[in-house]
Amino acid sequence: MTKPIQISVSILCSDFSRLSEEIKKIESSGADRIHVDVMDGHFVAPITVGPLIVKAIRPLTKLPIDAHLMVDHPSDHIEEFAKAGADAIMVHAECYGRRRPQCASYGDFPKEVDRIEYDALRPDIEAIKNSGKKAFLVFNPGTPVELGPLAAELDGVLVMSVNPGFAHQQFMPVALSKIEKLSRTFSGDISVDGGINGLTAPQAVKAGANILATASYFFGAHDPKELVREMKSLGLS
Which of 32, 37, 40, 124 does the annotation list as catalytic? Predict the structure, then answer.
């Protein structure tokens, strides 16, 4: 059975001086989830927000909050985000394996690995699940999508369609083949993040994604409610 399309709106492109109003805009648009991009200046170049923002917006909405941890050593932060009120915690595959030589040093981006060390990943997935939260594994564009023995433990997979760190990037078509592969082998949610717009959203849904993460496309829309309606309708065609 085909899953309904969900829209996850990232607050990365919101007006943080009016964050309460922006959360209300997301909720009233009919979007399904709130996406919080957490960046530490190490795994990616920028620094954004932490668990305090999740804690601040938790009372403002009943929508699920996804904490996307673009951080080194995610195990150090899982408990904090769980307590802050995140409903799903997303960790990057690139934190659980030997990074390629071109991105192994501080300041080298994007982070990529050829193989995941599942013994290193398993405790963090278990920690997320034991906290009562959904566990998502995230893959950068250059990292092969392999779930190995943990496929059944994951609630979802997030495929990055841009190299993480900055908004307003162009969608990378390599994401589509990854989504197609997942759609044949993985029964959980398949989310795609980066460069989602009127052209790329249909492509992602056709490939098998059922969660579309959007930031600038949503906040730049003249009518966010209509935008959400159009994106959700892609699952009906």
Answer: 37
Active-site residue identified among 40, 66, 189, 193:
193
Residue 218, Cβ neighbours under 10 Å: how many?
A: 25
37 is catalytic: yes
Give the tens place of pLDDT for each residue, 142-201: 999 999 999 999 999 999 999 998 778 899 999 999 999 999 999 999 999 999 999 999
User: Which 3 state secondary structure label does DSSP give 178?
Assistant: helix
CA 209, CA 190: separation in Å to the nearest integer?
5
- Is the overall model pTM greater than 0.90, yes or no? yes
What is the distance, to the nearest Å, from the Cα of residue 37 to the centroid of all Cα atoms in its chain?
8
Whether 145 and 181 have beta carbons less than 8 Å apart is answered as yes
Q: Is 223 assigned a catalytic role? A: no
**80 CA to centre of own chain:** 18
CA-based angle 90:149:142, to the nearest 5? 55
Superfamily covering domain 11-236? Aldolase class I (3.20.20.70)
Long-range CB contacts for residues 75-79, cutoff 8 Å, separation at least 24: 75/123, 75/124, 75/127, 77/38, 77/50, 77/51, 78/124, 78/127, 78/128, 78/131, 79/127, 79/131
Q: How far apart are CA 63 and CA 237, in angstroms?
A: 26
Between vectors from CA 71 to CA 185 and to CA 146, what angle results, nearest 5°? 20
